[in-house]
């Protein structure tokens, strides 16, 4: 029986994306899949509001569907797909789930670098010229099921870059306030895009 979220007007109902939705659904918990569908719907909405062309829109939706495909894997499975590159990643295996998700997507035949970079970058951030990655990052941190970052979601509907700046700034501020280490990639992205904040 299909998840009822498939019947919602979402990217998961599109013939070109549905097979990926079904494969992802088999690999994650029901709760995680619900999050993925909400992220896909919001990513599509953000992309449309920011006038993505047809190819960008499809790439953004596919990246959203695939972004957490590795999120429910064990530490051993994650490290087999994406060996840790820093001590922080060794201590926190979930930190590599973006790279692991990229590897799974590649093994499923996804070759669009825009999609792969967005999947990998949804954890730590993407370059400021990666509109697909920015849309996914913002959707992931502000989808309605999280109950936070409503301001970021609203801002993304008319200024994706500013929303992305705010999302990265919020993440770094949160981690610092908790005394947690900020990943080097996130710090690099933060320095590149948040200087104006």
UniProtKB/TrEMBL annotation:
HD/PDEase domain: from which residue to which, for each copy? 28-154
Residues folding into a coiled coil are: none
The keyword Transmembrane is annotated on this UniProt entry: no
Q: Quick check: keyword Transmembrane in the entry?
A: no
Class in the EC hierarchy, top level: hydrolase
Record EC number: 3.6.1.41
InterPro entries attached to this UniProt entry: Diverse_Catalytic_Enzymes, HD/PDEase_dom, HD_domain, YqeK
Molecular function GO terms recorded: bis(5'-nucleosyl)-tetraphosphatase (symmetrical) activity; metal ion binding; nucleotide binding
Q: Which UniProt key words apply to this protein?
A: Hydrolase, Iron, Metal-binding, Nucleotide-binding
- Could you tell me what reaction this enzyme catalyses? P(1),P(4)-bis(5'-adenosyl) tetraphosphate + H2O = 2 ADP + 2 H(+)
Recorded hits in Pfam families, A to Z, give: HD (PF01966)
Q: Which SMART domains match?
A: HDc
State what protein this is by name: bis(5'-nucleosyl)-tetraphosphatase (symmetrical)
Organism listed in the record:
Truepera radiovictrix (strain DSM 17093 / CIP 108686 / LMG 22925 / RQ-24)
Query: Lineage from the top down?
Result: Bacteria, Thermotogati, Deinococcota, Deinococci, Trueperales
């Amino acid at each position: 029986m299909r998840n009822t979220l498939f019947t919602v007007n979402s990217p998961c109902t599109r013939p070109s994306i549905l097979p990926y939705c079904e494969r992802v659904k088999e690999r994650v918990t029901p709760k995680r899949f619900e999050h993925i569908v909400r992220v896909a719907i919001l990513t599509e909405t953000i992309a449309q509001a920011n006038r993505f062309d047809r190819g960008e829109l499809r790439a953004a939706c596919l990246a959203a569907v695939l972004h957490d495909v590795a999120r429910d894997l064990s530490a051993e499975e994650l490290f087999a797909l994406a060996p840790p590159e820093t001590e922080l990643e060794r201590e926190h295996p979930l930190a590599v789930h973006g790279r692991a998700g990229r590897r799974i997507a590649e093994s499923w035949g996804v070759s669009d670098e825009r999609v792969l970079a967005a999947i990998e970058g949804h954890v730590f951030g993407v370059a400021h010229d990666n509109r697909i990655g920015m849309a996914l990052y913002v959707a992931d941190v502000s989808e309605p099921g999280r109950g936070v970052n409503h301001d970021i979601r609203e801002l993304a509907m008319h200024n994706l870059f500013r929303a992305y700046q705010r999302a990265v700034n919020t993440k770094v501020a949160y981690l610092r306030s908790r005394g947690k280490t900020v990943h080097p990639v996130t710090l690099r992205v933060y320095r590149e895009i948040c200087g104006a904040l």
